[in-house]
Specification:
724 residues, Immunoglobulin-like, 5-stranded antiparallel β-sheet
Length: 724
């Protein structure tokens, strides 16, 4: 009865968890005040400067935005304006503590009139700007003299003097954070796996008036394809004529080109911004030489044949199966074991129904994750495997759920179901004919719980399958996630197919009380692990406060045992834990990285993608470790390979530079870095060097042989083992 009661308690806790997951994506109450200049208003357009954060504390760079509100019929320009116009420019003279700025440009719209092609924006646009500080963490004073050309039937210059001061306070979000995130997500990227690729680029016709012919491939049917080429001075590009392949996954674009004197199209290096509805990508090509850096993968983009499908689905099933053995799922083994023991001597039909319900909970949960991934991807939000563990509210809700399970298994409370719920349960399928009213919903929730705790881990084969899915469309995401759920559910399905595996266990007896208490200790340890991750997210004070709530809850359950107050006490503790978790301050990535080294002789440097290219140019070899406090497989890799033995010796010796990217909290730069390798989950490790400037991706589970061989292959001396 105690375990059944725990399942009933889990329903309430899972409802709280679902609410927390939704809240995790929304700004917390009481956030920082807005940080923006006043609008400079004209008849054609209004302009102002906004900041995504209200302070510079602990920051090396500040995300800004140059925001335009345009009157109807007016437009401003992209970085390459087309036949006329120029993009907005800003002179930052007079600013203090400003080292440099970098303006980015969202994907543009095409404006065609009387044979004149212009590229820009109408209505509303924000140009994202990264402001790098001369002295990190110090106050920033911005003085921008903005000049822009705003055009309708006529063009008028717009000049604005904008001033914005940011103090050296914690970098809390502002009212403009989400707006800047949305516009930053519309900046085209040259990362692979975006579903739009150039197969070939060639020139045809008279060299004085050539035509640029582009062959494109897509991972899903194309709808409103356009291209914005940029090339050497003297080349101008008209509107493309587009012809689609039979399945609309391939297309040929014929772009008329005006070639000035001394600017031949053949052999020219071009930057192409591809746009198709809400999708876009940036690609670099050399005309008549194919895409720069492209290989077979680019040519085959979008061509997902039966063999590829079977291979990816097989990898997803195998990865899900192996996920049962990964550290993240170990806490769930206590519930699996208790459930199996409870079936000792039971009827085969009851065993089969219970384990099928758990398998259904796993598969349905994976389908819900797939739906969430599709929705986030459609909204332009960076997605990845296990990213819900980057949200403090989710961690607090998960810890509450685990504590409730542990308290119930220890015997501190049982949940008496309301009469209406009990009557409903009596009409539902039950575990055994002898115990009517014991609904299979508890087994379903156990499967869902297993899925939630499994998501921080990336097992072998799983990274390949997830990368394939998240780099493509909704169909691939749903199919691969369903296959992953099937793999994780295979042990349950095996017992359902052969119920005698569970019937062979001893019948329940007094010995189960001891077993429950041992397993409750394991769940309590899981709660401590979740609190440690919460401490990394919000600071020790908030995590200790949440832990204090759980201790008070346990004490209250002991003192008030038998008084029927378990449900209101648990609900109150859950709400208080969520509130406390939402009030913590996230440590800065640089601070966390500096404090996360477990081997004192290895000097781990914070991740900097641009620094990698510079160091490789100097002949250095670099190991990049993408990790997070919620990734238990990452900790296994550190303990088994990175922080001991010959690998640690090489890192400490200085011939290989150690660089660590901490993804415990959301970081778009790390998410983009992972996506460049077609990866969307961690652990992830790569080795760079003079012989491998593009990086050598290592397996999810590291071995000394694989890492040392990658060092040798990248240029750090002879390989001591063969790279698998």
């Amino acid at each position: 009865m105690a375990f059944f009661a725990a399942k009933q308690a889990a329903r309430t806790a899972l409802a709280i968890l679902a609410a927390a997951t939704v809240l995790a994506g929304h700004p917390a109450a009481g956030r920082a005040a807005d940080a923006a200049t006043d609008w400079v208003r004209t008849e054609a357009a209004d302009v102002r400067l906004v900041s995504a954060i209200a302070g510079t504390g602990g920051r090396e760079a500040v995300p800004l935005g140059l925001e335009f509100r345009l009157a109807e019929g007016w437009k401003v320009y992209w970085r390459s304006a087309g036949d006329v116009g120029y993009p907005p420019q800003a002179d930052w003279a007079g600013s203090s503590n400003l080292a440099a700025t970098e303006m980015q440009y969202p994907v543009p719209h095409r404006f065609s009139a009387f044979g004149i092609e212009q590229f820009g924006y109408s209505g509303h646009v924000v140009y994202p700007i990264t402001a790098r500080l001369a002295e990190p963490g110090a106050p920033l004073s911005l003085r921008a003299a903005v000049n822009a050309l705003v055009c309708s039937e006529i063009c008028v210059p717009l000049d604005a003097a904008l001033s914005l001061d940011l103090p050296a306070t914690p970098p809390k979000p502002t009212a403009f954070t989400q707006m800047l995130d949305r516009w930053s997500a519309q900046v085209p990227s040259d990362l692979p796996g975006l579903g739009l690729d150039v197969v070939s680029a060639r020139t045809e016709g008279d060299p004085a008036h050539p035509t640029l012919v582009l062959a494109l491939a897509s991972d899903r049917p194309l709808s409103a394809l356009d291209v914005f080429p940029e090339g050497p001075a003297g080349l101008s590009f008209g509107k493309p004529a587009v012809s689609f392949g039979p399945d609309r996954r391939t297309a040929e674009l014929r772009v008329p080109v005006g070639a000035g004197a001394g600017a031949p199209l053949s052999g020219a290096a071009l930057t192409l911004t591809l746009a198709d509805g809400d999708r876009f990508a940036e690609r670099r090509v050399t005309v008549d030489a194919g895409p720069a850096g492209a290989g077979p993968a680019a040519a085959a983009a979008g061509e997902t044949g039966p063999a590829t499908w079977l291979a990816m689905l097989g990898a997803a099933v195998l990865g899900g199966l192996i996920l049962n053995l990964m550290p993240c799922v170990l806490p769930v083994l206590s519930l699996k074991l208790l459930s199996a023991v409870g079936y000792g001597g039971a009827a085969r039909g009851a065993i089969r129904r219970g384990f099928l319900a758990s398998a259904a909970g796993i598969v349905v949960s994976f389908l819900l994750l797939a739906g969430g991934a599709v929705a986030l991807r459609s909204a332009g939000v960076a997605i990845g495997w296990g990213i819900q563990f980057q949200q403090p509210l989710f961690l607090a809700a998960m810890a509450t759920l685990v504590v409730l399970f542990a308290a119930n298994l220890w015997g501190l409370f049982e949940v008496a179901l309301p009469r209406a719920v009990a009557d409903l349960g009596a009409r539902l399928p039950s575990d055994t004919p002898a115990r009517p009213g014991k609904s299979l919903a508890g087994h379903f929730l156990t499967g869902a719980f297993a899925t939630l705790l499994a998501t921080p881990c990336s097992a072998p084969f799983l990274g390949t399958a997830i990368g394939f899915a998240l780099a493509r469309g909704p169909l691939e995401i749903v199919a691969v996630f369903a296959a992953m759920g099937l793999g994780l559910a295979l042990p349950y399905l095996a017992v359902a197919a052969v119920p005698d595996l569970a019937r062979a266990l001893p019948r329940p007896g007094r010995w189960m009380t001891v077993l429950k208490r041992v397993l409750s200790v394991a769940l309590a340890a899981t709660a401590l692990w979740l609190l440690s991750v919460l401490a990394a997210q919000t600071g020790a004070a908030a995590a200790l406060a949440v832990g204090g709530v759980f201790v008070a809850l346990a004490a209250a359950l002991v003192l008030l045992r038998g008084r029927g107050l378990a449900v209101p006490l648990g609900a109150a503790a859950a709400v208080l834990a969520l509130v406390l978790a939402g009030t913590g301050e996230r440590p800065m990535p640089a601070e966390r990285t500096a404090g996360s080294t477990t081997v004192e002789t290895v000097a781990w440097q914070p991740f900097d993608r641009g620094e990698i290219d510079r160091l490789v140019g100097e002949g250095r070899v670099i190991l990049v470790d993408v990790t997070a406090d919620w990734c238990l497989t990452c900790k296994v890799n550190k303990a088994a390979v990175l922080d001991r033995g010959p690998v640690a010796d090489r890192l400490a010796g200085g011939d290989v530079l150690a660089m660590r990217a901490d993804w415990t909290s959301p970081d778009p730069a790390i998410a983009e870095y992972l996506a460049s390798f077609g990866r969307y989950g961690i652990p992830f490790n790569a080795v760079y060097g003079p012989a491998a400037p593009g990086g050598i991706a290592l397996p999810e589970l590291l071995t000394e042989d694989a890492v040392l061989a990658a060092f040798g292959k990248a240029g750090a001396g002879p390989a001591t083992a063969r790279l698998e």
